[in-house]
Amino acid sequence: MPRRLLAFLAAVLLIGAAEKRLSRGEQKERIAKLGETYRQFLIDVGPILTDPERDAFLRLENDPQRDVFIDDFWHQRDKKHGTTNNAFKKNYYERLEYVREHFEHINAARSKIYLIWGEPMEVVKINCPSRLRPIEIWHYPAFDSKLEYGREPYVLFYQPLLKSKEFILWHPQFDGVHELGKVEPIFVAPTNGTSIPLEAVCDNVDVLVKALASVSRNKDKIYYLLDPPEIDPEAVSRLVRSVVIANPAAPKLEPRVQLTYPSFDGEKTDVQFFVEIPRAQVQPTELATAKVYSIDVVGEITRDARMWETFRYRYDFPFDTAGDRLPVVIDRPLKPGAYVARLKISDAKSGAETIVERELDVPSKAERAPSPEQNQIAQLHAALVDDRATIRIVPLKDEDVVSGVQTIDTILTGTATKGVEFWLDGRKVAARHSPPYSLDVDFGDVPRTHKVRVVAVDEHDQPLSGDEILVNTGTDPFRVRIAYPRVAPHIEGPVRVGVEVKTPRNRMLKAVELYYNDVRIVSMSDPPFVQTIRIPSAAQIGYIRAVATLDDDSKAEDAVIVNSPAQMETVDVHLVELPTTVLADGRPRLGLPQSAFKVFDQAKRVEIAKFEEVKNLPLAIGIAVDNSASMEPRMAAAQKAAADFLRTVMRAGDKAFVVAFDSTPRVLQVWSATSGELFTALARMQARDQTALYDAIVYSLYNFTGVRGQRALVVVTDGRDTSSRFTYDQALEYAHRAGVPVYAIGIGIRTLDAETRLGLARLCGETGGSAYFIGEATDLASTYAEIAGELRSQYILGFYPPEKGGTKWHEVTVQVDGGKAKTIRGYYP
User: Fold this and answer.
1) How many domains does the chain have?
2) Is the peptide bond before 485 cis (omega within 30 degrees of 0)?
3) Confidence (pLDDT) at 46
4) How far apart are the C-alpha atoms of 563 and 574, rounded to whole Å?
């Protein structure tokens, strides 16, 4: 099947509703209805517009949707070509101007090749009317590697009719050499007076020979050069799914819709649609013994005839949901002003749908009382804002690494608030019953994770509302956080939930899902991630959970407990993970079952709650390289060896960061899965200054905060610590708390330097890693290979500690049948 047809079919399967390709008549009819701007767009980009994109564009229902499409069209080209800020668009229109000035028309062969592949590095014109028709040969450095066209290919155009100015693309099979003129003989010497070689009468025959050979070798691919370059069909599908397009053939839903403005937060007002869908008009999805109603909402909001935002939600309702109507609440925070909202509400099972369109007059001050016609709704949907008390923690100035004494400031509003309680790591540390509601907190010298909670209380010191933050949560670029509610001692009915998500560069967020207990309530695709969920009863303990998923299916989550009668006593019950290597005859051994392992906490056996071989787990690696002045003669070898190590050990789904340290440690590359970024960071290292080894260990381990699964830190140094502000004991304690295996490689550290050797050996051994001492940087490669082999031959054992909280160090041992286990020596509960 031709490559072009395969690409089109893949896109059509993804697009879904559209489903069937538009006929030429349908295309012509839809184009005629477009405004001049959009008709001209189709003309301008015709050579690079794929068939699925053209169909998708013609199915759009309004100009704001078309504007979104055009913006995304150029964004996808920027993404494909590694450019930004519409650089591809600018370059394309410069090409288009050249084409219109120099060639016949935009759809001519030369025009298309020029617009698609750009300016050739060489153009050779052959004008030899005695033997040949006018010929142009374009020489390119390369084409798309998917075409497999070979290096420095040629494209040959010729003018078939002298009366026509148009050049066409020459194909050896369909045009033949004779169409070019009297080509034969080319280099053959004449045998009589009539056979004159071509080179004797025409210039550039050598280039013609190369072009004929190149085109003949690639005759099966020539016409592909005229095809629009392929664009990820999922990108087209994603855009179509993000806007409201009606399906006239779909069964109809008849929901009841109420629009309100129930609350106000800063500069924005909550625009809320309360939708009740008749249960009789939808169908449940059945899987095994479970039945679930799933409602999809696609929305778009326009302002001044421009797209303001789009969003997608999916709501799930258990089959035994009470009532004959399914309630859907849609929240969108908007600045005051006039908008138009369009929603498509559909049943995921039957495809039944309805289009809801409303003009919005968003007030600058939220409504507080329902209008008379809202009374019926108000019985089901109470106000979401408790005017008695709201409290927020003012963000700290330095949110990345927090240490020392910091002031916790709060913003407090409400009529019932009579004081504020301050909690640190589950313990109440202070209370304030008059302004200012602030507290100085000493977070210590080493950057450890702490939870700060503030609670607004009434005159009887009963909690009303609260807020909390985590400090020193690490540098993992993928995080999700339930922004509100954070502290919820007494809530029920409709509760507005806001979620914040931080995503890594070059990754796309697929969805944010909200759960109440274990039941998924809604899946959201576009920010801001704000949604109203219903809490059944204030007497019922539960938790709200947010799960974010990236396009590579990696996940992050956060949870908030609600209605806990002792809400200050909540303790994080965390899984202790033990990265474990089993050595048999000095070599790592895999393939052992869980039953072969025994785990002991303080000499008491505990149940193994998690067991995995790392061959199935993503790997998170930190590389910390000493670039003090003494490393200068070894720097190049150390950089190359580190790059080779990463190239060897990293696979799809793995990630790493790079730290360089001299007098101070510096992150040269944050967490990244892209080898090119990591290699570039290694190449930037320069030897200078002193050695802050212990600072580097603490700083590097900090980057693993919040990162789960298989982790390892590799530290390369050539000497003792000379300039750290952290002591060895502080670094060791921090390593104990981090639970990350440390592998230290000492280069040229003399045997007599026992303090440095023993210190590194102890720190590595107690974290489940190893210390290596080598003579020269040239020995790094074999050492890295040994570490890589160990990292790819581990088990991850996990257990829940019997002791909740506390500050006592717990010693852990692992026993295994068939070998000797090497793992971390202990943990802090």
Assistant:
1) 5
2) yes
3) 95
4) 21
